[in-house]
Amino acid sequence: MLLTLDLNDPRPLHEQVAGAIRRAIGEGSYGPGDRLPPARDMADALGINANTVLRALRDLRDEGVLEFRRGRGVSVVGGAGSRALVVQRARDLLDYAERHGYSRDDLIEMVQGLS
């Protein structure tokens, strides 16, 4: 897994890690049932603390993208690919809207107006 972080990105590192993992899943680098590398290995490769990676993995588990199995590590949930990509794109859109002065509620109102 080749993940990269942008040190100029104002988002917290754990959100950047989660976003990079979502993109990897959405782009097909990891499919349903595939195991991710151990958090410690990802942290070493990125040059960050393992707890930061673990926080990102827990966030993705809470979103239903990953599952933790004792003794088997972390794996991608079936059907997570498209969801992961949509969630990441929604986050990117929210960041973009906020940079241009729109709130989350403004964005929700815009999306609802599209229906």
Describe this structure as you would to a colleague.
Residues 11-79 form the HTH gntR-type domain. By secondary structure, the chain is mostly helical. The chain has a single domain, classed as Winged helix-like DNA-binding domain superfamily/Winged helix DNA-binding domain (Arc Repressor Mutant, subunit A, Orthogonal Bundle), CATH 1.10.10. The protein is built from five helices and two strands; from the N terminus they run αααββαα. The chain has a two-stranded antiparallel ribbon. A hairpin with a 3-residue loop joins strand 1 and strand 2 (73-76). The longest helix has 20 residues, at 80-99. The relative contact order is 0.15. The mean pLDDT is 87.
Unreliable segments of 5+ consecutive residues: none
- Radius of gyration, rounded? 15 Å
CATH class designation? Mainly Alpha
CATH architectural group = Orthogonal Bundle
Largest sheet: 2 strands, antiparallel
- State the CATH topology: Arc Repressor Mutant, subunit A
Number of strands: 2
Keywords: DNA-binding, Transcription, Transcription regulation
Domain HTH gntR-type: 11-79
Protein name: GntR family transcriptional regulator
GO molecular function: DNA binding; DNA-binding transcription factor activity
Pick out its properties.
globular; Arc Repressor Mutant, subunit A; Tscrpt_reg_HTH_GntR; GntR family transcriptional regulator; WH-like_DNA-bd_sf; two-stranded antiparallel ribbon; transcription regulation; 7% strand; 2 strands; DNA-binding; 115 residues; mainly alpha
